[in-house]
Amino acid sequence: MWTELTMYSGTQTGNGDTKANPIDVHDYKGGAFTIKCSAITGGTLTVKVMAYDPITDAWYELVAFTGLSATGSERKVVSADIGVKIALEWTYAGTTVTFKVGASLKDI
Q: Which of 94, 95, 99 is nearest to 71 (CA)?
């Protein structure tokens, strides 16, 4: 079985993350992550899926999407352990960018 969810959908004008509201992924093993950029004005958007390690109390990079300077989409698959919690982290130095990140998580 697979669980489909939206990790983020909206418009941004700078750097940000969703670490204050992470997604609990205890019940999942692997998954596919997709980004879609529907509008961008200047600059390059770089998005990473971050995983949380409670032992070290630190976030680490799970998936890094290719930087986007135009509209488009990309999908990355992770077949290994995805951690305890996941969140997004992005950098953007343009005017505005509208994007959405989805996850298809494989149930244990």
A: 99
